[in-house]
């Protein structure tokens, strides 16, 4: 089958010097940007939980919370499967979670809130990010003016 010049122009097909039809899309791209080297992935994830204020006030047990984390943290979809991948350490009023596999800071916040709810502390404490790798337990700020206005009504 031979193509006329009009058919060739309509279909976007070019005839090269040998007379063989080749598609415009089959040509190699010109002036491609060089591919940049990808940065190596982060090998360890380290997060801290600062429990100072509630532990000093005696309403929060850091040892019990550490045990809760050891039981509830999932690795490869299974709880109690920490092995050598995730390390949970407690030093005074701070808990450090170090993981060699990807570990989400948001997951740590989720587990902390779950523990607070389980121990009926969720109404008084909240989990706040104090920096990129640290969460802190803080009390809700309740102003005295709101309490007085409610008691007058």
UniProtKB/TrEMBL annotation:
GO terms for biological process: cytoplasmic translation. GO terms for cellular component: cytoplasm; ribonucleoprotein complex; ribosome. The keyword Aminoacyl-tRNA synthetase does not apply. Gene3D superfamilies: 3.30.1360.210. Keywords: Ribonucleoprotein, Ribosomal protein. GO terms for molecular function: RNA binding; structural constituent of ribosome. PANTHER family: 60S RIBOSOMAL PROTEIN L22 (PTHR10064), RIBOSOMAL PROTEIN EL22-LIKE (PTHR10064:SF1). Belongs to the eukaryotic ribosomal protein eL22 family. This is 60S ribosomal protein L22-like 1 isoform X1. It comes from Sapajus apella.
């Amino acid at each position: 089958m031979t193509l006329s010049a009009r058919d060739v122009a309509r279909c976007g097909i070019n005839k090269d010097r040998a007379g063989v039809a080749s598609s415009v899309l089959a040509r190699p791209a010109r002036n491609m940007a060089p591919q940049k080297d990808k940065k190596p992935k982060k090998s360890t994830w380290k997060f801290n939980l600062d429990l100072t204020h509630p532990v000093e006030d005696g309403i929060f047990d850091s040892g019990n919370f550490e045990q809760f984390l050891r039981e509830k943290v999932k690795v490869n979809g299974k709880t109690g499967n920490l092995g050598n991948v995730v390390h949970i350490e407690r030093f005074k009023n701070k808990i450090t979670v170090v993981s060699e596999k990807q570990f989400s800071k948001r997951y740590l916040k989720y587990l902390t809130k779950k523990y607070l709810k389980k121990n009926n502390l969720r109404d008084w404490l909240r989990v706040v990010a104090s920096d990129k790798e640290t969460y802190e337990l803080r009390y809700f700020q309740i102003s005295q003016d709101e309490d007085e206005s409610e008691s007058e009504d």
